[in-house]
Design brief:
The protein is an all-beta fold. It contains three helices and 110 strands. The strands form five sheets. It has a 13-stranded parallel beta sheet, with no helix packed on it. A twelve-stranded antiparallel beta barrel has the order 94-95-96-97-98-99-101-104-105-108-109-110. A six-stranded parallel β-barrel has the order 46-48-51-54-52-49.
Amino acid sequence: MQRKELEKAIAMSLVLTAFSGGVGTAAAVYHDTAGTYNIGAQTVTDVKNNAFPGYMPGYLATADAAVSGNGAGVVMNVSGGAFGVNIGSSYNTGLDAHGIGAYNGAEINFAADTTLSVNNAATHTTFDNHGIVAGTDSVIRIDSSAVDITVSNGSHNSGLRVYKNGQIIVSNPLTMDITAGTAGGSGAAYGIAVDTHLGEAGDAGHIETGAVTMTVNGGSSAGEYDAGIAVEQSGSYTANDKVDITVSNSANGGRVAGVQNRGDGAVVMQDVKIAASSSGSSEAFGIYNYAGGSYNLKNLDITASSTGGQVVGIANISSVSGKVSSFEAADITMELQGNGSEVYGIQNGLDSTNASDFKAGSINIKADNNGNIIGITNKVGSTFSAGDIVIDGTGKSFMFGIENQTANQMGLENVTVKLTKKDGGGGATAGMHGIWNPAVDFAAKNTTVILDNTKGTDKTTGINVGSYKADIDGDLGLDIKGNTGDVVGVNGTAEVTGDVNAILSGEKNVTGINGNTTVAGDLNMSVNSHGATYGIKGNATVDGNVNMVVVSDSGSGVAGISGFTSVIKGDLNMSVTGGPGNIYGVDGSLDVDGNTNVVLYGANNGNNYALYGSHINLNGAVNNIHVYDQNGNGLRWAGAIRGKTTIADNSVTNVSVVSTGSNSIEMMDGLREGLDLGKNAVLNVSVIAPDATVGVGNEQQKGMVGIFSWSNSTPIVLQEGSQTNVMINGCAVNSAGYNGAIGISGAAQASGDVNVNIISEGGIGLVVVSYDTNDAVYNGDVIVNTNKSTAVATVDSSNAARVGTSSITIDPDAGKKVQLVGDVKHFDDAAMLNNGADIDISFKNASSFLTGASLGANNTDRTTSLSFDNGSLWNMTGDSVATKLVNDNDATIDMTQGADTLAVAEYQGDGGNFIMDTDLGSETDGDKITIGTKTTAGITYIQVKDASLTNGLGEVTGVKNLLLVTDNSVEQAAQFVGKELNAGGLWDVTPTIENGLTALDANGNPVGTVNEWYLTKIAKKINNDTSVLLDAADNSYALWRNSNDTLRKRLGDLRHRSNQTDGDGLWARYTGGKFGSGSFDSHYNMYQLGYDKADNAKSTYGFALERGTGRADYSLGSGKDKLFAGSLYGTWYGEHGNYTDVVAKAGLFDTDISSYGDYPDKANNKNHAYSLSIEYGKTIELSKERGVFIEPQAQFIMGRLSSSSYTTDRGNHVYMGGVNSYIGRLGFVLGQKTSENNDVYFKANLLHEFGGDRDIYMRAANGETLSDNRDYGDTWFELGLGTNVKLGNSSHFYGDIERSFGADIQKKWQINAGVRFEF
């Protein structure tokens, strides 16, 4: 055959159409006698009345056949050319019509191309038409290159039919077009029928084909079942090539099926394509397996639809007790369309004890219906296994992707279920379920469930395994959207070897996984609803990372993970937002090996805890746990971590709770109920509720607390090298020490460092409560900053049944510091009790201090021991009491910070210091120290800030005695000695302290007793930083004085001018030098540029600009000076060598001052300066020949430095009065001129300052004052050498060097050099 003809032959169509006929038998080619008959090619049309006797009544009505054989041993061979059969519409015998028939053991072998057309009369509606029929024990073999069969009219019609163990074997492509009766007759249409109608139990007919293409058009009669392939009894069908089936009917109450097996036989096919459709209420099945039969297929493609009946892609069921229907295929694809009745993709088993077995490779189901949809259902007792599964369904009522009603576990590979609810779909009880598997574990590989129930009102469940587990060997994906019904991603235990990726939302209650969860990969989940909302409601074990977002505005309960114990081996990243109910990030014990990042956005009236469990283990390197008030209404119960918490070595953990409302708070904690912070770990805790208050009643757990522990059973352990930073901003505690801002509360074992910052007023930094037994020991750095609050405290128990002892000990290890800003206090409330409360704090080095008072100790059941050593400091801000006080080795207890009294039961002092406010002049006013029962031998130094330093009354004179210390101890072993004090003001003050027996009154009598110590004298001197400020005033005067000069220094000898009538002069000069006194040295450099003009031979006028710098070195300081000045001058020469020179100058000094004393300081000062100089001299020639001359000189300089004031960086205010200077000079110049009109000279001067008084007033920031007067009046000599050298006709050089003698501020040297040009 040509290729086109072969392709046409392979395309086979099967159409069934039934017509009925009259009574009789006819055949064109018929043999019923044993033998072999060879038949050539021919065409048979409308054969009639060729009877074949021996037919078995009751099984098949008598029939006409174009070719028929009847009887054992009858062999008919048809070969040659084409063989055609056409039983036309005029066929009116009333018999069944067969194209080819073999009966009762006959054998027909076709080798010719075969075309069969069997069309019974349209009016014959009760007779069957069949293309090829193999009856009892008969065999028909068709080895034609193509077989085309068309059957129509009649009743039950088929293309190929076998019964009673008959066989048909078609080797090559088969095309069939079969149509059932259409003239009102009943009957079904089949493309291939095995043991149908006449079959009995045990019949095992068989049909085997190659490629098949068939079209089956079912009848319109109600209740008819039409199929492309129908197998019953024990018959079987095998297809060795592709099968393409199109089947449909228009009946009500019937069924169409691509393939149906209603017996226990077998169907074996390769690639199968089925299109099944029905109208009315008829059902449409792709494949129907009914009574224990079996299917074995390769690839299967099903399209099925019905306008009103049920639609099933594959029904693998057994209605026969004891028989198991089985189905096996490689890859299955189906597309199903319903219109209100149920749609099943695969139905495996019935609602009975009869079992079915289903095996498949991949399954892809797409379904659409206006009613229920079930992608796969596995009924009672059945077994189901498959490879990859994809289910995509759209429906209106209840919907199941996969439904397993059995206790048998389904064996599945990768699963994807997608269900979508249509508009107006679902009722309150319908439900959308991706996978429904409540009676056994659900096992699959990668599983994805996508549910969109936003248009329904029923519940939505991704995977439901009830009390069993979902065992996913791979990844689990959930994308589920609900409406007003509850939404659950997985209902039951979930075990996933890969990742979990879940997004869930709904208008009511939503839960990601409702059961214990184990994930070997990452867990990524987002849950959003307006009802109760949970990420995981059960224990969670995740080997990878957890990334979870949970959002709800409901008060019905919200949590990321809610279970007894959860273990996260990767990172935990979680954000939880809830409404006005209980909200948790993780509710239950938690172990996290990776980093933990949890943010909770809470609301008022419920619990708001990021982590809440009996134990919380954070093993990550960086952890962030935060709780925020989301709507400004505040948080009532809130905490970042509640539970015994362990934090890993070398980690950094940030914890915060922030409430912005002005509501009443019950509990708000950073960490509560125990902590073990690892070595070298950092913990930062913030609790912020600045506008909140705390409910009434004294309860230990109330308030804003950074870290909280009930008792020694759940201590706060801060390991060596760790750093804990706590910041609290809340409300003040009440009078009992409850219900406010607290940094760390409870039993503690702190080897690491602690830093607590209480921003709000009235809080407590560190506290222990006498609830059971509460002991806190701190051995690292302890830094507590409070705002007018308590740094360290004990509080009585509010629970009368749980009264114990409490103690807090701060005993830093070597090199560690204690810095406390706030009081040390025992809170005492008469309504509460303790069995002993102790505070013991040691300040061991110069970096340690206490700024606050010691309050509440009664030395019996409330004791306070304070030890200051090695330069540590107590800034005592209020009257204080202490059970034991140690003051050793240059420690300082400063009572001038607000205290008036100090009462100590036991005192030890050896080398320590007290700083006390005193008013010696009053002899009554001053700080007081009282020692009670015991002292230890040693010397304590007393330093004083006396009122005389600040009250402006001047030094205290006369006999004065002021009681400072009363020692009532038995030993009276302490000794007190005065010591110099520089308090950072202006003075060093040294008091005289004497025992009461040696301190005498004006009459020489002792003023006190042996147990009293008195201040009797005060000596003061300017301190080292003040001296710098005073020396700076001297330096500014001296620098200005040294900037004054003479005519020769400024201009040289003007008589050397080349043009003495109208010449112009331009000159530049440098002056540098050094001056100083016993307390400072100063270097300076001056630069001048000037211009003048000769008005005539006797007079010159000009001006000059000057800039200078200086550096002063003081004993403990330095200064930098800048000078800017301008001057005008005029010079007149007489007839006899005399001259007069007048200079007016104004300038500005800008001075920077730095001191390096006990209290280093900086300042800037500016002074304006003015001067007027008048100089007169006369040159007298002593030897004209040798050029020797002498020049007597007189000069008077009037100057002024303006007053100024400035404030130093440390707040010391300085006022410097102005200085009026009047300096007179008498001197001479002795020199010799050369013939070139050059000269050298020696000069000597006597100078005297007639003015020079300056008043200075200072007030320090601490109130100390100083009034001083500086008198710069002085007489001194200056000697020098100089020269004038002519450089050319219009230029010359001049210079000199000099120094002074006898002055208080000495000019140690000065050099002056200039050059002048004339033109």
